[in-house]
Amino acid sequence: MKIHLSLLFFLIFSVNSFSQINKDHDSTAIFILDKMADVIGDLQSVTFELDNSTDQFDSNNNIEKQYSTSTISFSGPNKLRVKIEGTNGTKGFWYDGSYLSFYNFDENNYVTLEAPETTLEMIDEMHVNYDFQFPAADFFYPNFTDDMMEQFDSIKFLGKKTIDNEECYHIMATNSELNVQLWISNKTYLLPKHFVMIYKNKSNLQYESTFKSWNLNPDIPDAAFDFLPPPRARLISILKKS
Fold first, then answer.
1. Local confidence pLDDT in tens for the 242 residues of the chain
2. Is there a domain that residue 111 lies in?
3. Beta-carbon-side half-sphere exposure of residue 143 (alpha carbons within 13 Å)
4. Does 50 reside within a domain?
5. Is 105 among the domain residues?
6. Which among 73, 78, 83, 75 is positioned nearest to 119, based on CA atoms?
């Protein structure tokens, strides 16, 4: 599984190939990434919030920042709920292991689609078929570190830095197209705190995320992942990407 670097997920970015030679991967950075991936992989459920800013070109080719805040809940291998509020309105996803529902709060319309049996398979399929994007999804892939090592020529540990009075491990990964930086909390649990992705070949456009309000292994009722259309909501249809 290739890491999408969406953060989702997040934006979802896929790469076809990278040079397999002249890799410069710091063993300390790889160790920290592995530990973070292990902690996330062992979670039975989790909720957290994600503050995002995204650079985009406006009609005059000026860089404009778009902001959003996402509230995200995972439970087991096949439950996901996401609510995204920001510059482009308010939207939500509900996945119950069989169906994915997407609801646009501003337009009061929704679509419900048959989905694969696991959350990660669902995320992949819905992105490929419908361009749906799920914030921070990349951090939940089991091969996170391996994918980073495959796709980035350099991965460096830059030392300990403080963000919001919280000590973090700072890691930078680069290749010819991207500069990705991670700040991983140095608390009891090694969880992502901050994330920046810089597109070198697109005027250094940036995507930036801050993780907060982590709640590990909460008891989330299955009903929280069931979508019930609000009154007068319109059922719509969408076409797969060609």
1. 344 444 433 333 333 334 445 789 999 999 999 999 999 999 999 999 999 999 998 888 899 999 999 999 999 999 999 999 999 999 999 999 999 999 999 999 999 999 999 999 999 999 999 999 999 999 999 999 999 999 999 999 999 999 989 999 999 999 999 999 999 999 879 999 999 999 999 989 999 999 999 999 999 999 999 999 999 999 999 988 86
2. yes
3. 10
4. yes
5. yes
6. 78
**CB neighbour list of residue 23: distance below 8 Å, 6 or more residues apart:** 149, 153, 154
User: Rounded to the nearest 10 degrees, what angle do helices 27-41 and 144-151 cross at?
Assistant: 150
Position 4 in a domain: no
How many structural domains compose the chain? 1
Q: What is the CATH number of the domain that holds 185?
A: 2.50.20.10
Cα angle 29-33-36, degrees, rounded to a multiple of 5: 140
Q: Which domain holds residue 111?
A: 24-230
What is this structure's pTM?
0.86
| Other Cβ atoms closer than 10 A to 33 | 24
